[in-house]
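Sequence in, structure out. Go.
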Amino acid sequence: MANEKILVADDEKDIGRLLELTLSRAGYQVIRASDGEEALAKIGQDRPDLVLLDVMMPKLDGIQVCRRLKGNSVTASIPVIMLTAKAQVTDKVTGFSAGADDYVSKPFNHREIVARVRTLLQRSEKIRYLNPLMGVLGDWFTDKGVEQLGKELEVAQDIQRQLLPRETPELPGLEIGAVLFSSKSVGGDFYDFLPGPKGQMGIALGDVSGKGIPAALFMVMVRTLLRVIAADLKEPAEVLAQANKHLTRDIPPGMFVTMLYAILDGKGERLAFANAGHWAPILLRDGQDPVSLEADGAVLGVAEDVPFTPGELKLQPGDLVTLFTDGVVESVGYESGQTLGIDGLVALLTTHREKSTQAMAEAIATQIRESQKGALQDDLTLLILKATQPIGDAH
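Output:
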């Protein structure tokens, strides 16, 4: 049985009772309100998990209530279903413009109501605990909030550093090096390692649009969301698809995330990966030309229903797989104002190939930083994997 709490706001008593009975039988706790003002008061007092809101109500109509909910950082993430006798497209547009998550026209089917409620609750379940973080979001984008946070950048920088893996994982037959430099005190690049069953390991490299405080905030949200979704280490394309559905709903227009997500199996026989608008990893294999490991996929947070094409690589001893953000290949001024580019990165990898992967990553990142005139123009992240032998053959 469900335990979620639902507020039903409808001034028609019969409909209100019918909705209460329908949802109660489905296992939900139901709170009733008969007008817009009462609805807002009960939302503030009881903090429901979802609001079923009639459009036509006295004192404050449903559109006004919805706008106030979505305009308040504390309640903005509560899903809202608008319920109305009107079924015109213009009415639906008005409801969605006010921030409604779904729209049901009267007369309604009882099963449809339960299905819509269940779907919305399931969609928000995994990131519901992020509400306090999202509640802070509105304040961070005001002049006063930015000024206040500017005084706390040193603390924020320390916190962000602690979110990064403290050390690279040690796996038989695989050597990993990683380095991240932010162009600001805090930034939007991140990488993560997610241990899984039977020696599996998830590897994530992401780049949030923008720089500084807004990018850092969304970096934290994306990283946390990814850990929740990838907890059972699904196939990479499925992980990105689920992450995209949540982010499309929750991040403001103009923000997006590029990400490369891969899973290395415990035997070292398979590196599965999927790409969300990110730079393709580079494979250096002895005796062969460099290869970009392509896998099609749109950036996260822009369109909900987009496909992610899975990619796969069978590692061989000596293989070098490099993941990176655009701050590496788009760094300006590396040589006489030219960008580094893929060819330049391959040249640096080749030059430092005899070093350990960590020494390689640090050397390449240091050369790029020293070549810049002044501060970095973008966050810079390098993640280098080297197969020393098939993990399944390690002793």
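Check: The mean pLDDT is 82. The longest strand covers residues 174-181.
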